[in-house]
Amino acid sequence: MKLALTVMALLASGCLLASDGFAQASPPIDKPSAGAKNQENAQGLSHDLSGVWMQYRDGDVPGTPGMNGVNEHFRPPLTPWGEDQFKNAHALQGNAAIAGKEDNSALRCEPSGPPQVLILPNPWEIVQIPGRVLMFFEEQHIWREIWTDGRPLPKDPDPSWLGYSVGHWEGDTFIVETAGFNDKEWVDLYGNPRTSTTRLIEKYRRLNHDTLEQQIIIEDPRVYTKPWVSPPKLHKLEPGWELAEWFCVLDENNDYDKVVRKPAGIAPDSK
Amino acid sequence: MRSWWWIFFCLLTGTMICSPALFAQKTQTQGEKASAEAKAEAVPAGGHLSHDLSGVWMQYDDGTAPGFARMNGVDDRTRPPLTPWGQEQYDKARPLMGPRAVGGQEDSAALHCDPSGPPQLLILPNPWEIVQIPGRTFMFFEEYHIWRTIWTDGRPLPKDTDPTWLGYSVGHWEGDTFIVDTVGFNDKVWADLSGNPRSEQAHLIEKYRRLNHDTLEQQIIIDDPKSYTREWVSPPKLHKLEPGWEIAEWFCAPSDWQEYDKDVRKPSGKTGGEPTLPAQ
Q1: Residue range of the domain that includes A244
Q2: Of residues B115, B133, B255, nearest to A247 (C-beta)
Q3: ipTM score of the complex?
Q4: Do B145 and A250 count as a contact with CB atoms less than 8 A apart?
Q5: Is the Cβ pair A143, B147 closer than 8 Å?
Q6: Is A155 contained in some domain?
Q7: How many domains does chain A have?
Q8: In a 10 Å sphere around its CB, with 0-12 CB exposed, 13-18 middle and 19+ buried, how is residue A244 labelled?
Protein backbone atom coordinates (compact mmCIF):
# COMPACT_ATOMS: atom_id res chain seq x y z
CA MET A 1 0.00 0.00 0.00
CA LYS A 2 2.79 2.32 0.87
CA LEU A 3 4.25 1.79 -2.52
CA ALA A 4 0.92 2.07 -4.24
CA LEU A 5 0.28 5.39 -2.57
CA THR A 6 3.75 6.61 -3.34
CA VAL A 7 3.32 5.74 -6.94
CA MET A 8 -0.14 7.21 -7.11
CA ALA A 9 1.28 10.40 -5.63
CA LEU A 10 4.00 10.42 -8.17
CA LEU A 11 1.60 9.66 -10.95
CA ALA A 12 -0.61 12.49 -9.83
CA SER A 13 2.20 14.94 -9.51
CA GLY A 14 3.62 13.88 -12.82
CA CYS A 15 6.94 12.99 -11.29
CA LEU A 16 8.14 9.45 -11.36
CA LEU A 17 11.75 10.05 -10.53
CA ALA A 18 11.61 8.33 -7.18
CA SER A 19 9.03 5.68 -7.82
CA ASP A 20 11.30 2.71 -8.12
CA GLY A 21 11.42 2.40 -4.37
CA PHE A 22 10.05 -0.88 -3.17
CA ALA A 23 11.69 -3.71 -4.97
CA GLN A 24 14.94 -1.92 -5.12
CA ALA A 25 17.84 -3.60 -3.47
CA SER A 26 20.70 -1.98 -5.30
CA PRO A 27 21.95 1.57 -5.88
CA PRO A 28 20.13 4.03 -8.15
CA ILE A 29 20.30 3.37 -11.82
CA ASP A 30 23.08 4.97 -13.76
CA LYS A 31 22.87 5.93 -17.36
CA PRO A 32 23.61 2.97 -19.56
CA SER A 33 27.15 2.87 -20.73
CA ALA A 34 27.81 3.40 -24.37
CA GLY A 35 29.14 -0.12 -24.40
CA ALA A 36 25.68 -1.45 -23.77
CA LYS A 37 24.80 -0.59 -27.29
CA ASN A 38 27.55 -2.73 -28.68
CA GLN A 39 26.85 -6.33 -29.22
CA GLU A 40 28.76 -8.35 -26.71
CA ASN A 41 28.69 -11.46 -28.71
CA ALA A 42 29.32 -11.28 -32.40
CA GLN A 43 27.89 -14.76 -32.82
CA GLY A 44 24.45 -13.72 -31.73
CA LEU A 45 22.74 -12.23 -28.75
CA SER A 46 21.13 -14.38 -26.14
CA HIS A 47 17.66 -15.81 -26.62
CA ASP A 48 17.35 -15.84 -22.86
CA LEU A 49 15.50 -12.75 -21.66
CA SER A 50 14.76 -14.00 -18.17
CA GLY A 51 15.28 -11.85 -15.13
CA VAL A 52 13.95 -8.80 -13.35
CA TRP A 53 14.25 -5.67 -15.49
CA MET A 54 13.94 -1.99 -14.70
CA GLN A 55 13.92 0.72 -17.28
CA TYR A 56 16.61 3.35 -17.38
CA ARG A 57 15.47 6.76 -16.36
CA ASP A 58 17.06 8.61 -19.15
CA GLY A 59 14.99 9.36 -22.15
CA ASP A 60 14.44 11.99 -24.74
CA VAL A 61 11.23 13.28 -23.20
CA PRO A 62 12.54 15.40 -20.33
CA GLY A 63 9.13 16.09 -18.81
CA THR A 64 8.35 12.41 -18.47
CA PRO A 65 11.51 10.69 -17.36
CA GLY A 66 11.32 6.98 -17.50
CA MET A 67 8.05 6.78 -19.34
CA ASN A 68 9.02 7.16 -22.94
CA GLY A 69 8.65 3.57 -24.02
CA VAL A 70 5.65 4.95 -25.87
CA ASN A 71 7.05 8.27 -26.99
CA GLU A 72 4.61 11.11 -27.55
CA HIS A 73 7.13 12.93 -29.75
CA PHE A 74 6.74 10.24 -32.37
CA ARG A 75 2.99 9.99 -32.32
CA PRO A 76 1.55 10.25 -35.80
CA PRO A 77 -1.42 12.54 -36.44
CA LEU A 78 -4.68 11.27 -35.01
CA THR A 79 -7.69 10.45 -37.12
CA PRO A 80 -10.72 12.67 -36.48
CA TRP A 81 -12.20 9.91 -34.31
CA GLY A 82 -8.93 9.48 -32.44
CA GLU A 83 -8.70 13.22 -31.90
CA ASP A 84 -12.15 13.20 -30.42
CA GLN A 85 -11.23 10.45 -27.94
CA PHE A 86 -7.99 12.17 -27.06
CA LYS A 87 -9.66 15.50 -26.36
CA ASN A 88 -12.22 13.92 -24.08
CA ALA A 89 -9.61 12.17 -21.95
CA HIS A 90 -8.56 13.79 -18.69
CA ALA A 91 -4.88 13.15 -19.10
CA LEU A 92 -2.71 12.12 -16.19
CA GLN A 93 0.42 13.47 -17.84
CA GLY A 94 1.41 16.08 -20.37
CA ASN A 95 0.17 19.54 -21.28
CA ALA A 96 -3.49 18.61 -21.12
CA ALA A 97 -3.28 17.29 -17.55
CA ILE A 98 -4.92 19.34 -14.82
CA ALA A 99 -3.79 18.51 -11.30
CA GLY A 100 -6.60 17.08 -9.20
CA LYS A 101 -8.74 16.45 -12.28
CA GLU A 102 -6.74 13.77 -13.97
CA ASP A 103 -8.38 10.54 -14.93
CA ASN A 104 -6.91 7.23 -15.91
CA SER A 105 -8.43 3.81 -15.57
CA ALA A 106 -5.60 2.79 -13.23
CA LEU A 107 -6.61 5.53 -10.79
CA ARG A 108 -9.90 3.66 -10.39
CA CYS A 109 -8.10 0.34 -9.88
CA GLU A 110 -9.17 -0.93 -13.27
CA PRO A 111 -6.81 -3.59 -14.57
CA SER A 112 -3.89 -2.44 -16.67
CA GLY A 113 -2.48 -3.91 -19.83
CA PRO A 114 0.06 -3.27 -22.53
CA PRO A 115 1.39 -0.94 -23.70
CA GLN A 116 0.62 1.20 -20.62
CA VAL A 117 1.80 -1.47 -18.21
CA LEU A 118 5.09 -1.62 -20.15
CA ILE A 119 6.01 2.04 -19.91
CA LEU A 120 5.76 2.81 -16.23
CA PRO A 121 9.02 2.76 -14.27
CA ASN A 122 8.33 -0.29 -12.14
CA PRO A 123 10.22 -3.57 -11.92
CA TRP A 124 9.04 -6.36 -14.20
CA GLU A 125 10.21 -9.88 -14.81
CA ILE A 126 10.48 -12.24 -17.75
CA VAL A 127 10.25 -16.00 -17.27
CA GLN A 128 10.62 -18.30 -20.27
CA ILE A 129 9.11 -21.75 -20.23
CA PRO A 130 8.55 -24.10 -23.16
CA GLY A 131 5.88 -22.67 -25.43
CA ARG A 132 5.43 -19.49 -23.44
CA VAL A 133 7.10 -16.34 -22.27
CA LEU A 134 5.62 -14.97 -19.06
CA MET A 135 5.86 -11.34 -18.06
CA PHE A 136 5.23 -10.29 -14.48
CA PHE A 137 4.74 -6.67 -13.54
CA GLU A 138 5.06 -5.32 -10.03
CA GLU A 139 2.52 -2.70 -11.04
CA GLN A 140 -0.89 -4.04 -10.02
CA HIS A 141 0.54 -7.54 -9.76
CA ILE A 142 -0.23 -8.10 -13.44
CA TRP A 143 1.01 -11.12 -15.40
CA ARG A 144 0.67 -11.82 -19.08
CA GLU A 145 1.36 -14.79 -21.31
CA ILE A 146 3.01 -14.63 -24.70
CA TRP A 147 2.50 -17.86 -26.62
CA THR A 148 5.64 -19.02 -28.42
CA ASP A 149 4.38 -22.41 -29.54
CA GLY A 150 3.82 -21.24 -33.08
CA ARG A 151 0.10 -20.63 -32.83
CA PRO A 152 -1.26 -17.73 -34.88
CA LEU A 153 -3.08 -14.78 -33.39
CA PRO A 154 -6.77 -15.60 -33.02
CA LYS A 155 -8.89 -14.15 -35.82
CA ASP A 156 -11.66 -12.82 -33.66
CA PRO A 157 -10.57 -12.59 -30.03
CA ASP A 158 -12.84 -11.26 -27.31
CA PRO A 159 -11.67 -7.80 -26.25
CA SER A 160 -9.61 -8.00 -23.09
CA TRP A 161 -7.37 -5.82 -20.93
CA LEU A 162 -4.20 -7.69 -21.82
CA GLY A 163 -5.06 -8.74 -25.33
CA TYR A 164 -3.87 -12.01 -26.82
CA SER A 165 -0.13 -12.26 -27.44
CA VAL A 166 2.08 -14.48 -29.57
CA GLY A 167 5.84 -14.19 -29.93
CA HIS A 168 8.63 -15.45 -32.15
CA TRP A 169 12.34 -14.90 -32.67
CA GLU A 170 13.78 -13.18 -35.72
CA GLY A 171 17.53 -13.44 -35.32
CA ASP A 172 18.37 -11.77 -32.04
CA THR A 173 15.02 -10.10 -31.66
CA PHE A 174 12.00 -11.46 -29.85
CA ILE A 175 8.90 -10.06 -31.51
CA VAL A 176 5.60 -10.01 -29.66
CA GLU A 177 2.36 -9.32 -31.48
CA THR A 178 -0.80 -8.57 -29.55
CA ALA A 179 -4.38 -8.05 -30.68
CA GLY A 180 -7.80 -8.30 -29.06
CA PHE A 181 -7.61 -5.34 -26.69
CA ASN A 182 -10.58 -3.62 -25.14
CA ASP A 183 -10.88 0.18 -25.41
CA LYS A 184 -11.08 0.84 -21.68
CA GLU A 185 -7.51 1.92 -21.22
CA TRP A 186 -5.20 4.43 -22.89
CA VAL A 187 -1.90 3.43 -24.44
CA ASP A 188 -0.11 5.95 -22.22
CA LEU A 189 -0.84 8.50 -19.51
CA TYR A 190 -1.66 11.27 -21.98
CA GLY A 191 -4.97 9.85 -23.06
CA ASN A 192 -3.89 8.44 -26.41
CA PRO A 193 -6.50 5.81 -27.23
CA ARG A 194 -6.21 2.05 -27.36
CA THR A 195 -9.12 0.33 -29.10
CA SER A 196 -10.35 -3.08 -30.15
CA THR A 197 -8.56 -2.57 -33.48
CA THR A 198 -5.20 -1.76 -31.87
CA ARG A 199 -2.36 -4.05 -32.79
CA LEU A 200 0.72 -3.86 -30.62
CA ILE A 201 4.19 -4.96 -31.70
CA GLU A 202 6.98 -5.23 -29.14
CA LYS A 203 10.57 -5.95 -30.06
CA TYR A 204 13.02 -7.18 -27.43
CA ARG A 205 16.75 -7.58 -27.92
CA ARG A 206 19.29 -8.37 -25.25
CA LEU A 207 22.17 -6.06 -26.09
CA ASN A 208 24.40 -7.56 -23.42
CA HIS A 209 23.95 -9.49 -20.22
CA ASP A 210 22.64 -6.50 -18.31
CA THR A 211 20.74 -4.60 -20.97
CA LEU A 212 17.45 -5.26 -22.71
CA GLU A 213 16.27 -3.09 -25.56
CA GLN A 214 12.52 -2.74 -25.94
CA GLN A 215 10.72 -1.10 -28.83
CA ILE A 216 6.99 -0.45 -28.90
CA ILE A 217 5.03 -0.04 -32.13
CA ILE A 218 1.32 0.71 -32.16
CA GLU A 219 -0.90 0.23 -35.17
CA ASP A 220 -4.51 1.32 -35.14
CA PRO A 221 -5.86 2.89 -38.32
CA ARG A 222 -9.02 3.88 -36.50
CA VAL A 223 -6.99 6.17 -34.21
CA TYR A 224 -3.59 6.88 -35.75
CA THR A 225 -3.00 7.86 -39.37
CA LYS A 226 0.09 5.65 -39.51
CA PRO A 227 1.99 3.23 -37.26
CA TRP A 228 3.34 4.87 -34.12
CA VAL A 229 6.96 3.76 -33.89
CA SER A 230 8.64 4.78 -30.64
CA PRO A 231 12.43 4.70 -30.39
CA PRO A 232 13.91 1.75 -28.48
CA LYS A 233 14.10 2.09 -24.72
CA LEU A 234 16.69 0.38 -22.51
CA HIS A 235 16.05 -1.73 -19.43
CA LYS A 236 18.62 -2.86 -16.89
CA LEU A 237 18.88 -6.34 -15.41
CA GLU A 238 18.47 -6.26 -11.62
CA PRO A 239 19.68 -9.65 -10.43
CA GLY A 240 19.11 -8.95 -6.73
CA TRP A 241 15.50 -7.84 -7.09
CA GLU A 242 12.29 -9.71 -6.46
CA LEU A 243 8.90 -8.30 -7.37
CA ALA A 244 6.98 -7.11 -4.35
CA GLU A 245 3.22 -7.44 -3.90
CA TRP A 246 1.47 -4.35 -5.16
CA PHE A 247 -2.26 -4.59 -5.71
CA CYS A 248 -4.52 -1.67 -6.48
CA VAL A 249 -7.14 -1.63 -3.72
CA LEU A 250 -10.16 0.52 -4.40
CA ASP A 251 -10.87 1.61 -0.83
CA GLU A 252 -7.29 2.65 -0.23
CA ASN A 253 -7.23 4.44 -3.54
CA ASN A 254 -10.48 6.28 -2.85
CA ASP A 255 -9.23 7.39 0.56
CA TYR A 256 -6.03 8.58 -0.97
CA ASP A 257 -7.83 10.34 -3.75
CA LYS A 258 -10.06 12.19 -1.30
CA VAL A 259 -7.45 13.08 1.27
CA VAL A 260 -4.34 13.73 -0.79
CA ARG A 261 -4.60 13.74 -4.54
CA LYS A 262 -7.56 16.02 -5.15
CA PRO A 263 -6.80 18.59 -2.43
CA ALA A 264 -3.32 18.86 -3.87
CA GLY A 265 -4.74 19.74 -7.23
CA ILE A 266 -5.64 23.06 -8.73
CA ALA A 267 -9.13 24.32 -7.94
CA PRO A 268 -11.80 23.15 -10.39
CA ASP A 269 -12.48 26.60 -11.83
CA SER A 270 -8.91 26.88 -13.01
CA LYS A 271 -9.87 24.79 -16.02
CA MET B 1 -26.49 -28.39 -13.40
CA ARG B 2 -22.91 -27.62 -13.74
CA SER B 3 -23.17 -24.74 -16.10
CA TRP B 4 -26.07 -23.42 -14.09
CA TRP B 5 -23.86 -23.46 -11.06
CA TRP B 6 -21.20 -21.55 -12.86
CA ILE B 7 -23.59 -18.88 -13.91
CA PHE B 8 -24.99 -18.69 -10.44
CA PHE B 9 -21.57 -18.29 -9.03
CA CYS B 10 -20.79 -15.56 -11.51
CA LEU B 11 -24.00 -13.81 -10.59
CA LEU B 12 -23.23 -14.19 -6.96
CA THR B 13 -19.77 -12.80 -7.22
CA GLY B 14 -21.26 -9.92 -9.08
CA THR B 15 -18.96 -10.02 -12.01
CA MET B 16 -20.08 -9.92 -15.59
CA ILE B 17 -16.47 -10.57 -16.37
CA CYS B 18 -16.91 -14.02 -14.98
CA SER B 19 -17.79 -15.14 -18.47
CA PRO B 20 -14.20 -15.95 -19.46
CA ALA B 21 -14.30 -18.59 -16.77
CA LEU B 22 -16.88 -20.33 -18.88
CA PHE B 23 -14.83 -20.36 -21.97
CA ALA B 24 -11.78 -21.79 -20.31
CA GLN B 25 -13.75 -24.95 -19.90
CA LYS B 26 -13.50 -26.92 -23.03
CA THR B 27 -13.86 -30.36 -21.62
CA GLN B 28 -15.92 -30.84 -18.55
CA THR B 29 -15.71 -34.47 -17.83
CA GLN B 30 -15.05 -34.60 -14.14
CA GLY B 31 -16.33 -37.84 -12.73
CA GLU B 32 -18.01 -38.43 -9.47
CA LYS B 33 -15.87 -41.49 -9.05
CA ALA B 34 -12.70 -39.44 -8.98
CA SER B 35 -11.64 -40.29 -5.53
CA ALA B 36 -12.05 -44.02 -5.88
CA GLU B 37 -10.35 -44.09 -9.28
CA ALA B 38 -7.51 -41.92 -8.16
CA LYS B 39 -6.80 -44.15 -5.26
CA ALA B 40 -7.06 -47.28 -7.36
CA GLU B 41 -4.52 -45.90 -9.84
CA ALA B 42 -2.16 -44.58 -7.23
CA VAL B 43 1.45 -45.43 -7.66
CA PRO B 44 2.24 -48.93 -6.48
CA ALA B 45 3.93 -49.63 -3.20
CA GLY B 46 7.57 -48.64 -3.30
CA GLY B 47 6.96 -46.40 -6.31
CA HIS B 48 7.50 -42.70 -6.33
CA LEU B 49 4.88 -40.17 -7.19
CA SER B 50 5.81 -37.39 -9.55
CA HIS B 51 7.43 -34.21 -8.30
CA ASP B 52 6.02 -32.52 -11.37
CA LEU B 53 2.79 -30.73 -10.51
CA SER B 54 2.63 -28.60 -13.63
CA GLY B 55 -0.57 -28.19 -15.59
CA VAL B 56 -4.01 -26.64 -15.42
CA TRP B 57 -6.07 -28.09 -12.57
CA MET B 58 -9.75 -27.93 -11.77
CA GLN B 59 -11.29 -29.18 -8.58
CA TYR B 60 -13.79 -32.00 -8.64
CA ASP B 61 -17.42 -31.16 -7.96
CA ASP B 62 -17.82 -33.79 -5.36
CA GLY B 63 -16.75 -33.07 -1.89
CA THR B 64 -17.07 -34.03 1.68
CA ALA B 65 -19.28 -31.10 2.64
CA PRO B 66 -22.52 -31.46 0.68
CA GLY B 67 -23.75 -27.98 1.52
CA PHE B 68 -20.69 -26.45 -0.03
CA ALA B 69 -20.37 -28.28 -3.28
CA ARG B 70 -16.90 -27.87 -4.69
CA MET B 71 -15.88 -25.23 -2.21
CA ASN B 72 -14.79 -27.52 0.57
CA GLY B 73 -11.04 -27.18 0.26
CA VAL B 74 -11.50 -25.30 3.51
CA ASP B 75 -14.19 -27.40 5.12
CA ASP B 76 -16.52 -25.60 7.53
CA ARG B 77 -17.46 -28.84 9.23
CA THR B 78 -13.96 -29.42 10.51
CA ARG B 79 -13.50 -25.89 11.81
CA PRO B 80 -12.32 -25.78 15.40
CA PRO B 81 -13.99 -23.43 17.91
CA LEU B 82 -13.27 -19.75 17.36
CA THR B 83 -11.40 -17.60 19.84
CA PRO B 84 -13.35 -14.62 21.24
CA TRP B 85 -11.59 -12.38 18.70
CA GLY B 86 -12.34 -14.84 15.92
CA GLN B 87 -15.97 -15.04 16.94
CA GLU B 88 -16.26 -11.28 16.87
CA GLN B 89 -14.91 -11.15 13.32
CA TYR B 90 -17.15 -13.99 12.27
CA ASP B 91 -20.27 -12.37 13.71
CA LYS B 92 -19.47 -9.12 11.93
CA ALA B 93 -19.07 -10.76 8.55
CA ARG B 94 -21.93 -10.78 6.08
CA PRO B 95 -21.02 -14.01 4.35
CA LEU B 96 -21.38 -14.88 0.74
CA MET B 97 -22.17 -18.53 1.47
CA GLY B 98 -23.79 -20.70 4.07
CA PRO B 99 -26.87 -20.41 6.24
CA ARG B 100 -25.92 -16.93 7.41
CA ALA B 101 -25.87 -15.49 3.89
CA VAL B 102 -28.62 -13.03 3.01
CA GLY B 103 -29.17 -12.50 -0.71
CA GLY B 104 -28.32 -8.97 -1.79
CA GLN B 105 -26.67 -8.16 1.51
CA GLU B 106 -23.55 -10.28 1.27
CA ASP B 107 -20.21 -8.72 1.83
CA SER B 108 -16.83 -10.09 0.91
CA ALA B 109 -13.59 -8.42 -0.05
CA ALA B 110 -14.02 -9.93 -3.51
CA LEU B 111 -17.30 -8.09 -4.03
CA HIS B 112 -15.37 -4.80 -3.89
CA CYS B 113 -12.84 -6.10 -6.38
CA ASP B 114 -10.33 -6.26 -3.56
CA PRO B 115 -7.52 -8.66 -4.31
CA SER B 116 -7.94 -12.22 -3.10
CA GLY B 117 -5.45 -14.56 -1.54
CA PRO B 118 -5.02 -18.01 -0.12
CA PRO B 119 -6.75 -19.97 1.23
CA GLN B 120 -9.92 -18.37 -0.20
CA LEU B 121 -8.36 -18.21 -3.62
CA LEU B 122 -7.64 -21.94 -3.49
CA ILE B 123 -11.15 -23.11 -2.74
CA LEU B 124 -13.23 -21.53 -5.49
CA PRO B 125 -14.13 -23.73 -8.45
CA ASN B 126 -12.05 -22.00 -11.09
CA PRO B 127 -9.20 -23.29 -13.23
CA TRP B 128 -5.70 -22.72 -11.90
CA GLU B 129 -2.27 -23.62 -13.17
CA ILE B 130 1.01 -24.69 -11.63
CA VAL B 131 4.30 -23.84 -13.35
CA GLN B 132 7.56 -25.05 -11.84
CA ILE B 133 10.91 -23.43 -12.60
CA PRO B 134 14.18 -23.79 -10.70
CA GLY B 135 13.83 -22.16 -7.29
CA ARG B 136 10.18 -21.27 -7.68
CA THR B 137 6.72 -22.69 -8.18
CA PHE B 138 4.13 -20.36 -9.67
CA MET B 139 0.40 -20.66 -9.26
CA PHE B 140 -1.85 -18.86 -11.70
CA PHE B 141 -5.50 -18.48 -10.88
CA GLU B 142 -8.13 -17.64 -13.45
CA GLU B 143 -10.02 -15.95 -10.65
CA TYR B 144 -8.99 -12.30 -10.74
CA HIS B 145 -5.97 -13.20 -12.84
CA ILE B 146 -3.92 -13.64 -9.69
CA TRP B 147 -0.47 -15.19 -9.60
CA ARG B 148 1.53 -16.20 -6.60
CA THR B 149 5.12 -17.23 -6.07
CA ILE B 150 6.21 -20.11 -3.84
CA TRP B 151 9.95 -20.00 -3.25
CA THR B 152 11.58 -23.42 -3.41
CA ASP B 153 15.21 -22.32 -3.23
CA GLY B 154 15.55 -23.30 0.40
CA ARG B 155 15.07 -19.86 1.89
CA PRO B 156 13.30 -19.73 5.24
CA LEU B 157 10.07 -17.87 5.84
CA PRO B 158 10.79 -14.24 6.70
CA LYS B 159 10.68 -13.48 10.41
CA ASP B 160 8.87 -10.17 10.18
CA THR B 161 7.18 -9.48 6.90
CA ASP B 162 4.71 -6.77 5.90
CA PRO B 163 1.13 -8.05 5.83
CA THR B 164 -0.02 -8.78 2.28
CA TRP B 165 -2.98 -10.28 0.46
CA LEU B 166 -1.02 -13.29 -0.77
CA GLY B 167 1.40 -13.67 2.11
CA TYR B 168 4.94 -14.94 1.66
CA SER B 169 5.25 -18.58 0.60
CA VAL B 170 8.02 -21.13 0.66
CA GLY B 171 7.72 -24.75 -0.41
CA HIS B 172 9.63 -27.99 -0.03
CA TRP B 173 9.17 -31.68 -0.79
CA GLU B 174 8.74 -34.32 1.85
CA GLY B 175 8.68 -37.59 -0.02
CA ASP B 176 5.82 -37.36 -2.49
CA THR B 177 4.26 -34.32 -0.88
CA PHE B 178 4.92 -30.71 -1.78
CA ILE B 179 4.42 -28.64 1.34
CA VAL B 180 3.79 -24.91 1.10
CA ASP B 181 4.11 -22.70 4.16
CA THR B 182 2.73 -19.17 4.01
CA VAL B 183 2.82 -16.36 6.56
CA GLY B 184 2.58 -12.58 6.43
CA PHE B 185 -1.09 -12.27 5.56
CA ASN B 186 -3.21 -9.20 6.07
CA ASP B 187 -6.62 -9.65 7.70
CA LYS B 188 -8.63 -8.17 4.83
CA VAL B 189 -9.85 -11.37 3.21
CA TRP B 190 -11.70 -14.24 4.85
CA ALA B 191 -10.34 -17.76 4.85
CA ASP B 192 -13.48 -18.88 3.01
CA LEU B 193 -16.82 -17.48 1.86
CA SER B 194 -18.56 -18.12 5.17
CA GLY B 195 -16.82 -15.26 6.95
CA ASN B 196 -14.24 -17.28 8.85
CA PRO B 197 -11.37 -14.92 9.60
CA ARG B 198 -7.79 -14.89 8.36
CA SER B 199 -5.70 -12.84 10.78
CA GLU B 200 -2.19 -11.47 10.50
CA GLN B 201 -1.07 -14.39 12.64
CA ALA B 202 -2.36 -16.98 10.21
CA HIS B 203 0.10 -19.64 9.10
CA LEU B 204 -1.23 -21.54 6.12
CA ILE B 205 0.01 -25.00 5.26
CA GLU B 206 -0.87 -26.55 1.92
CA LYS B 207 0.00 -30.13 1.03
CA TYR B 208 0.00 -31.27 -2.59
CA ARG B 209 0.40 -34.84 -3.76
CA ARG B 210 -0.03 -36.12 -7.27
CA LEU B 211 -1.96 -39.33 -6.83
CA ASN B 212 -1.68 -40.19 -10.50
CA HIS B 213 -1.12 -38.36 -13.76
CA ASP B 214 -4.54 -36.77 -13.75
CA THR B 215 -5.18 -36.25 -10.06
CA LEU B 216 -3.79 -33.79 -7.57
CA GLU B 217 -4.64 -34.02 -3.90
CA GLN B 218 -4.65 -30.76 -1.98
CA GLN B 219 -4.95 -30.38 1.75
CA ILE B 220 -5.37 -27.05 3.49
CA ILE B 221 -4.38 -26.52 7.11
CA ILE B 222 -4.89 -23.19 8.83
CA ASP B 223 -2.92 -22.43 11.95
CA ASP B 224 -4.21 -19.11 13.21
CA PRO B 225 -4.17 -18.89 17.02
CA LYS B 226 -5.70 -15.42 16.94
CA SER B 227 -8.84 -16.75 15.22
CA TYR B 228 -9.09 -20.46 16.05
CA THR B 229 -8.54 -22.38 19.27
CA ARG B 230 -6.55 -25.03 17.42
CA GLU B 231 -5.34 -25.98 13.95
CA TRP B 232 -8.07 -26.20 11.33
CA VAL B 233 -7.30 -29.31 9.30
CA SER B 234 -9.57 -29.78 6.30
CA PRO B 235 -9.80 -33.16 4.59
CA PRO B 236 -7.89 -33.48 1.32
CA LYS B 237 -9.64 -32.30 -1.84
CA LEU B 238 -9.02 -33.64 -5.34
CA HIS B 239 -8.24 -31.67 -8.48
CA LYS B 240 -8.28 -32.96 -12.04
CA LEU B 241 -5.66 -32.25 -14.68
CA GLU B 242 -7.18 -30.46 -17.68
CA PRO B 243 -4.60 -30.71 -20.43
CA GLY B 244 -6.67 -28.87 -23.05
CA TRP B 245 -7.37 -25.83 -20.93
CA GLU B 246 -5.72 -22.43 -20.86
CA ILE B 247 -6.31 -19.82 -18.20
CA ALA B 248 -8.59 -17.12 -19.60
CA GLU B 249 -8.46 -13.44 -18.69
CA TRP B 250 -10.81 -12.72 -15.83
CA PHE B 251 -10.15 -9.49 -13.98
CA CYS B 252 -12.45 -7.96 -11.42
CA ALA B 253 -12.92 -4.49 -12.93
CA PRO B 254 -14.60 -2.09 -10.50
CA SER B 255 -16.54 -0.37 -13.28
CA ASP B 256 -18.11 -3.65 -14.43
CA TRP B 257 -18.82 -4.70 -10.91
CA GLN B 258 -20.45 -1.43 -9.86
CA GLU B 259 -22.80 -1.50 -12.81
CA TYR B 260 -23.64 -5.11 -12.22
CA ASP B 261 -24.17 -4.62 -8.54
CA LYS B 262 -26.58 -1.77 -9.12
CA ASP B 263 -28.51 -3.29 -12.01
CA VAL B 264 -28.60 -6.98 -11.18
CA ARG B 265 -27.21 -8.23 -7.93
CA LYS B 266 -28.88 -5.96 -5.40
CA PRO B 267 -32.30 -5.77 -7.09
CA SER B 268 -32.38 -9.56 -7.22
CA GLY B 269 -31.44 -9.99 -3.58
CA LYS B 270 -33.78 -11.46 -1.05
CA THR B 271 -34.05 -9.69 2.24
CA GLY B 272 -35.78 -12.37 4.27
CA GLY B 273 -32.68 -14.07 5.54
CA GLU B 274 -32.92 -17.04 3.23
CA PRO B 275 -29.73 -18.76 2.17
CA THR B 276 -28.26 -17.42 -1.02
CA LEU B 277 -27.53 -20.84 -2.40
CA PRO B 278 -29.95 -23.71 -2.58
CA ALA B 279 -29.32 -26.54 -0.18
CA GLN B 280 -27.92 -29.59 -1.89
Answers
A1: 2-18+50-270
A2: B115
A3: 0.81
A4: no
A5: yes
A6: yes
A7: 1
A8: middle
